[in-house]
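hey so i finally got around to running the thing on that chain from the lab meeting. sorry it took forever, my laptop kept dying and i had to restart like 3 times. anyway pasting the input first so we r on the same page abt which one it is
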Amino acid sequence: MNKKEADKKILQYKEKIYGFALSKTSDYEQAQELAQEIICEVYISLLNSENIANYDGYVYRIASNVFSKFIAGLISNRKQSCIDDNPDALSVTDHYFYENNKKELETLKKEISYLSQRQRSVVYLFYYEKKTVTQIAKELNISANTVKWHLSDARQSLKETMIMYENVKIDENLAVNPIKFAFMGSSGTIVKKDTEDFFDTRLKQNIAWACYYEAKTVSEIAREVGVSVAYIADELKALVDNGFVDQVDSSKNPKYQAKMVISDIRKNAGEDGVYRNDSSELNKKIAKKLCQDYYKPIFEAFEKDPEHWGMSCPNNDVNFMKYSLVLLCQNFLQSGSVNAGMEKLKVKRPDGGNYIANATVANDWQELNGELFPDWIMGYMMNWGDDYYSLQANCRFTDRSMEWKDQVCFEALVKFIKNNCHPDALELKEYESICKNGYIHNNQVQVVTMKGGNKSPWDQLKEKIAQFDSVITDLKEFGKQIDEEFQKGVLQQTMPDYTKQFMLLLNTDRIGQIEVIPFILEEMLNSEMIKPLSEVQKKAALSILSL
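ok and heres what got predicted. didnt touch it at all, straight out
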């Protein structure tokens, strides 16, 4: 078989091979190692084979043979050296605890690896090297009473966890069914790295999820994710150092809890596979009210103004500008207390970032995308320089992905405009980025622009919106009722205190939240307040540049 065909087959079977490895090992780290060995063996075999009739059977036979060799290697300690180098390598003698129960013996071996480094050392020296308490105390430079305490505590911990294992649900066990963060983002100021940059390994994601709902010790986290303490120590430290996990006490065996907002929407999928927001019906109610009482008079005033409140776009398309007007006007419905509350929840990062981190949980095997989340919105994304201010949001009404990093390229657009829209003024990467994101089409700027330099679009519209103060005041009672309904739902949910504070703030001044915008646009389209956008306009929609 030629290399191109072999590469294609490896990609086709990659996930199946990992699933096989995980089912055989029930251990995240070992599954990755085993899967790599199987993939290498399959790839070499494919390159040296022709006319394979049954690929499934062919790959399965190779996987089974590699697995047998893998287990033989573990048993003979081929991959292991000592307790400090690899805590999983502890070899329990036959007479220790569970003489005739291999399953419990294997569980016990793994449980010992989840003990703290000091307790692993004490247990190893006492039970494996048969040293006395006095000898251990001298070797580890601790008192004999401390050795006795560690032995007693380790025995109790092992006893409790062995009993606990009998009641563990497989689908909730991260060692067997690890999660992944399908979407990661932030609310606040990013300098160098965003949430997804710090959670660059699946292990870090599972560590944060393991200690999300309740604070846990390192050993408890290790046990939850099915990876020994030695392997998670550095990953956990990185999360703590960067403010994603809090050390909640200063004891000798401290507990840790994730300090971020993690949403588990896996149970919100309908029969069609689409994930729907729990608060969709209330958001639709808000959208209907706002379209009638707030946006209808705003649109009328906007249309009458020949200057269109300082906005402009290709062909001065009023319909296209209305999309951006919604993005701006939504924010005027907030009292300001929400922003003040959010500031208190933001975490200052070592790189200078100051934001609330958020993530969405999915099962390890799930592939999620924007089409499965009709209510999604990403924004406000703001950038500014000495002579410009940009604002953008993405949702299903814009033809842009849920990822934001490649889309924030307004600096290149400003450079393009200031050089009379000449492509040669930009580097190739810059030009490609603004074309790809739809900011220009046929070298014509597509986004809504405003005159104002580095002044924010909100500041520029303050005087225009002031004429609707009485309308906004009349909406306050309606908004209060909506907030009470939202917050009642929040209080009934089980979630960490940090997340609960965030959710309560997010559901204050709810009628002015950006999350309502997709529902507003949908209501406007249904009631013909706005018209659908062209394919070119969708790329640049909800993007505003102040120059």
